[in-house]
Amino acid sequence: MNITTNKIRQDFLNFFKEKKHMILPSSSLVPYNDSTLLFTNAGMNQFKEIFLGEKKIDYSRVATVQRCLRTGGKHNDLENVGYTSRHHTFFEMLGNFSFNDYFKKEAIEYAWELLTSKKWFNIPKHKLWISVYKEDDETYKIWKDIIKIPVKQIIKIGDNNNIQYNSDNFWQMGDSGPCGPCTEIFYDYENNIVNNPESFLENKNHRFVEIWNIVFIEFNRISKKKIVPLKHKSIDTGMGLERIAAILQNVFSNYNIDIFQQLKQHISQLSKVKDLNHTSLQVIADHIRSCTYIIADNITPSNEHRGYVLKRIIRRALRHCHKIGMKKQLFYKLVSTVIEVMGDSGKILKQKQKKIEEILKLEEIQFSYTLEKGLKILQHEIKKAHNNMLSGETAFYLYDTFGFPIDLTADICREKNIQIDLNAYELEKSKQKKQSNINQKFYKNYNNITINNTCVFEGYKKNKTKSLVKYIFINNQSVSIIKKNEYGIIFLDKTPFYPESGGQIGDIGELYNKKCYFLVENTKKYGNAIGHFGKLISGKIEIKKYINTKINQVNRNSIQLNHSATHLLHAVLRHILGEHVYQKGSLVTNKHLRFDFSYQTPIEISQIQDIEHMINMYIRHNILIKTQILSLEEAKKQKAIALFDNQYSSIVRVVSIKNISIELCGGTHTKRTGDIGLFKIISYSSIASGIKRIEAVTGQKAIDYLHQKDNYITDLSLILQCNNSDIKDKITNLKNKIKNIEDKIIQLQQKENTYYITKLLKNTYDIKGIKLLIHVFNQYEHKLLRIITDTLKQKLKKTITVLVNIINNRFTVIIGVTKNLLDHITAIQIMKMIVEKTHTKGGGKKEIAEGGGIYTEKLSIVLKNIPLWIDEQLDKK
User: Fold this and answer.
1) 669 is in an annotated binding site
2) pLDDT at 334 over 50
3) Which of 249, 351, 363, 340 is nearest to 289 (CA)?
């Protein structure tokens, strides 16, 4: 029964192919058209719209091996990875699905045959236990009477806290929508006989490991207490490949299956650790798989969204590499082993191997310095931790300064039995967040609307329609009427308004008739429905009434110019920089366009100019922009670019600009490139490692931008009193003059420092053989105060210096203490006393500390009392 993981994967697909299932490829780890998910975390994700009844599929029986990632939200396995035998970030989910085809009996029979048949997995029947929803008698009887499972091995799972349908064996997509009971199959890892359900429940997830979950989607949840039967029933199943491989390969831990064994052997060769069961080896083996597949799906490390999840995983892996002696850039060398061990599943990685390795190597180089420094600080703070609690301020400091994600800090603390003050951490983090403006709050309130409506978009050919009002929402509630001065969302049966999608902002315009006027401020998509956001200016609008629609055509035209220019930009970037350029995001508005793309090296100004030149050349050629509705296969034959590895339907919309640009796109475009008029790049930046951003303007906005630059240059020439062509030389001469003046100032200040130091040496206090110097400067250079402090400490054998500088009603203070006094008193002690008395801020080390704040008379009083305070501190010693 010892077979490879790759064969298990293929046997699963072969079995369901024999059962007349269509074998579909895994979807991307980046979920298509689902903003609720960061990454695909289950096999059903790519079929979500089908379960919701929003989309039809050509096949009623489907089987897949889905690539999944669980690192956040409900399914957050990151913190457990490496410490348990079955948690992973990346894993493969084996699944079979039925859409209004077979149901409970067949689904259970298929699962049982695959698991127990000698032809297939041949697992002994007595080793398998079943759980069912307590109220699901039909499923219970199928297992008992048809499959002939002993009653003692069928466990009924009831509702939690006596709340109906709130059960581990009742699956639901959300607070509303498709749901239903499920049955789970468990494998018993031990041989001694268990005769009661209590023993099963006590040993669930340890001795008894869930291997397959079969969900019967037969209801629609209307509310917390109400569910109704669905007209069409479905099956959704999931079985973790790694778990079933562990069983068939006779190992208890997933990390001991063939795939992980090979990975751990390679890691062991690169490190000082030879124990293949070492926690760090398991963490690294898991994380290299995740990183490899995430990058293959065109995600790169960044500080936001999916890129940040990738960065967290990489940095956690690098910390464990560092821990076991892999301190050089070695992590990326594991990519080749991932590709090798993953078999057919790894084929998608091969062509992107070089890119994956380069990104991982670069991230390791960038993090290596801060990792070393951050670890030293963390280890120091852990030693000082009170009550085994690391302060939230320290955790945030590591996150903010050294890029330590909180789960990385928690991982290190966990090994030392230290907890983190997460409340204080979140408090520190919240201080950096900006308040959302009123409009953002308004729109955010409507993100969770679920509506069963289809709106026909007619905006490709029309800018106005006569439409039927289907739904109205105010304050997240469905209403029948909206009145004057009320904000809300109106849903129609058809509309010319383009909903925000694919980076293109939503249309604005108006809904009206003789008795009312509704100003549309934005348009968004809700499944197959389109919501018109705005305010009713006059009259009233009721559902089931007709209304006229009209988009703001000027606004739409500006958006279209920028959208078509974005396609040209994408094509030209790939032409000039290389076809490895890949779009990472875009924003198309009526004012400008923004385009993010993957590119590892800096872009020269000459290349930016070449990009502008080529795009404007295509604009001058006035090329016809075509849109076609094609099958996905036809689009692929035309080599159309499909962005973000999205999952597309079998029929797609293709936007073509001659043979220059061919892309799948649902947005609106101008008719010819000449309509764009002019293209001008206004900024170029690097927003993350390997991610570049270009912002540009077109048409009249581009002309306005050039006029602004002309005005700016003219103003500069007037200020500098020279011609426009002489501005550069004039500024260069001024810089040289300023440099000469600054050098002279420094020379004068150094002379002044010598004078001050000579004078200050005569004004010291003597306290028990220690020299104390306190002096207040006005409008003095702060850097020079540090020089004075260091010089005084060198000249005086036992000395404490307190130098204050007052500038514009604020003060700074530098405190110095010579090394031979540190056993008696420190700079940080004196600083803490000043901070407490003046309610300001400060910090530092034993030998030198700095602080400051708003100047008040309290500071003068504190300075006068310092000699007495120091005397008291010395007496205590």
Assistant:
1) yes
2) yes
3) 340
Q: Please provide residue 574's backbone torsions phi and psi, each rounded to the nearest 5 degrees.
A: -65, -30
Q: Is 665 labelled a binding residue?
A: yes
Tell me the residue type at 435: Q
Q: Which two tokens stand for residue 250?
A: 């006779």
What whole-number distance in Å separates Cα of residue 200 and Cα of residue 157? 11
Instruction: Give the strand pairing for 799-807 and 810-817.
Output: antiparallel
Distance CA 842, CA 465 (A): 66
For range 466-482, the mean pLDDT? 92
More confident residue, 874 or 199: 874
Q: How many CB atoms lie within 10 A of CB 797?
A: 12
Rounded to 5 degrees, what angle do the CA atoms 524, 525, 531 make?
A: 60
Q: Which residues share a beta bridge with 680?
A: 697
User: Residue 644 pLDDT > 70, yes or no?
Assistant: no
Is 567 assigned to a binding site? yes
- Contact yes or no for 251/49 (Cβ under 8 A): no
> What is the C-alpha to C-alpha distance for residues 403 and 364, in angstroms, rounded to an integer?
12
Tokens describing residue 617: 């050349």
Spatial contact of 28 and 45, defined as CB atoms under 8 Å apart? no
Distance separating alpha carbons of residues 95 and 581, to the nearest angstrom: 34
Phi, psi angle pair for 830, to nearest 5°? -65, -40
Which pair of tokens denotes residue 590? 């009526």
Q: How far apart are CA 149 and CA 138, in angstroms?
A: 14
Rounded CA Rg of the chain: 34
- List, in order, residues 6 or more apart from 384 with CB less than 8 Å away: none
Q: Compute CA distances 13 → 16, 17, 25, whole Å.
A: 5, 6, 11
CATH number of 761-876: 3.10.310.40
Nearest one of 251, 277, 253 to 264, comparing CA atoms: 277
The average pLDDT across 827-841 equals 90
pLDDT of residue 172: 82
Label residue 371 exposed, middle or buried (CB < 10 Å: 0-12, 13-18, 19+): buried
User: What pLDDT was estimated at residue 373?
Assistant: 77
Confidence of residue 682 (pLDDT cuts 50, 70, 90): very high
CATH code linked to domain 557-698: 3.30.980.10
Greatest mean pLDDT range, 69-78, 444-453, 640-649, 781-790: 781-790
pLDDT digits (tens, 9 = 90+) for 365-405: 878 767 877 888 888 888 888 888 998 888 888 887 777 88
pLDDT of residue 294: 92
* Pairing assessment for the beta strands 765-767 and 770-778 based on DSSP bridges: antiparallel
Query: Residue 679 and residue 289: Cα distance in Å, rounded?
Result: 42
- pTM for this model (two decimals): 0.55
Check for a shared fold between 5-252 and 761-876: no
Q: Where are the domains of the chain?
A: 5-252, 258-430, 439-551, 557-698, 761-876
* pLDDT at residue 62 greater than cutoff 70: yes
Q: For domain 439-551, give the CATH number.
A: 2.40.30.130
**Which amino acid would we find at residue 167?**
S
The count of other CB atoms within 10 Å of the CB of residue 861 is 11
Number of H helices, E strands in the chain: 24, 37
Q: What percent of the chain is predicted at pLDDT more than 70? A: 95
Q: Which two tokens stand for residue 212?
A: 């397959």
Please calculate the CA angle 296-300-302 and round it to the nearest 5 degrees: 160
CATH 3.30.930.10 applies to domain 5-252: yes
CA 466 to chain CA centroid, nearest Å: 41
Q: Which residues contact 615 (CB under 8 A, 6 or more apart)?
A: 565, 568, 569, 572, 679
Is the sign of the CA dihedral 243, 245, 247, 251 positive or negative? negative
Query: How much is the pLDDT for 710?
Result: 81
Helix (H, G, I), strand (E, B) or coil at 60: coil
Helices (H), 274-352: 279-296, 305-323, 335-341, 347-350
User: Is 328 exposed, middle or buried, given 0-12, 13-18 or 19+ CB atoms closer than 10 A?
Assistant: exposed
Give the pairing of strands 516-526 and 477-479. unpaired
